[in-house]
Amino acid sequence: MRACGGALAALLLAACGGGTTSTAPGGAVLSFSASVRVGGLCCLIYSPQIAVDGNRVFVGWIEAIRYTTYTPLRRSNDGGASFPDALSFGDWTRGDQDQLRLATAPGLALHLAWEDTRGGTCDPFCRGARLFTTRSADGGETFAANQPLPTAGAGGEQGAPALGAAANGDLFAAWHEGNGAGTAIRFARRMAAGPDEAPVRVDAGQPAVPAQRFPALAHTTDGRVAVAWLDARSGKSEVYVARSLDRGGHFGIGARLHPEDALVTDRAGVRLAVTGAGRMIATWAEQRGGRWQVQVAVSLDGGQSFTTPRPIESSSAGDQTAPALAAQESGAVYLAWQDSRSGADRLRAARSRDGADSFEPSVLVDSPPSGAEGDQRQPALVVDAGGQLLAVWLDFSRPDPGIYFARSAR
After folding, report:
1. Using CA atoms, how far apart are residues 119 and 218, in angstroms rounded to an integer?
2. How does 184-198 read in b/e, with b if 16+ C-beta sit within 10 Å?
3. Beta-strand relationship, 402-407 and 389-395
């Protein structure tokens, strides 16, 4: 197992140690189907991901077996009622795989990116990892040869890919890349037909290479691209954002997305999404006074400016962490997160019908068995063409733990 998987170690300790409805304003009800087990080995799984194309649902995750990490991928052809198909997309003969990400251009391609050490070694500091991509144009039946994403110069470790699939089949990718002097955010576009474009640095106006990590990516149909990331230039993690007006050819100077706040001691899990009207939503978790809360901010100008962040939901107890975000063209926005207000971590979700200006009361995505003590963790979300919310997560609250799936009612 890779020594850099600190999140995995924490997950193992938490996991192995031990569909609800809610009426929203106007009488609307957000509800979820009975959950379906997708797969996974207890205590050896993390970071589930999901993508959808028509009635096909793709779920991937990281799995550790005999000190090596792999990236299983399963497919449902019935909208998530079952996941019988195990898909093979990579060369797993040597090295570790991590940080799998999925993206779909509906009716065109399924894109995958992941961190891979086949070209180097993962020593205790995880040096030598590269990002690889592949695509399937036939719903996962076959995959193109694995291709590395280009490095910015003399190499260095790449990690934490963020993907966006354009309607024409182009792939947008952002990642962090380090070379010993620091870590910076890079961006590249892979054309559906044609050569790779050279990567660009997202925050090119920063003269020294700061500690920039874990990017999120969103793009609009008119060619605007925004990348947000966690930035430690001030000595603690803050959310920065930069945008491009030419489909990622050039980016402006990065700026802090939120006001300066001395009471916030840490931030994590930044995510971006856009609605059909071009409204951009950002979310992340921040620690204040020893507690974590999920925050939401909205941009009406393609990421140039954002509203003052606000908590997704106030609670008198527990932490809110690991936010997941999805939006649809109609303006509906969905958020899910880990919530420990009841003691153990449980998944809660909230819906906005007005582009994240307001949210309905949150609901539990899934009700664990009576007396269950294990956690539910790390949600991932996507909205299908019919407007239904699809969710996957790690579930250790069940007698048969693993990766679970549920969908919302229409």
Report:
1. 30
2. bbbbbbbeeeeeebe
3. antiparallel
Distances, alpha carbon 153 to alpha carbons 186, 198, 251, in Å:
11, 10, 18
The domain spans of the chain are 6-407
Nearest to 283 by CA among 299, 267, 272: 272
pLDDT tens track for 160-211: 999 999 888 788 999 999 876 788 999 998 877 666 788 899 988 776 667 8
Classified by CATH at the fold level, domain 6-407 comes out as Neuraminidase (2.120.10)
Between the two ends of the chain, the Cα-to-Cα distance in Å is: 41
Name the 3-class secondary structure at 71.
coil
SS3 percent helix, strand, coil of the chain, rounded to 5, is 5, 50, 50
Hey, what long-range contacts does 64-72 have (CB within 8 A, 24 or more apart)? 64/1, 64/5, 64/8, 65/41, 67/1, 68/1, 68/96, 69/1, 69/2, 69/5, 69/8, 69/96, 69/97, 69/98, 70/97, 71/97, 71/98, 71/100, 71/114, 72/39, 72/40
Cα 315 from Cα 305, distance rounded (Å):
28
Predicted TM-score (pTM) of the model is 0.90
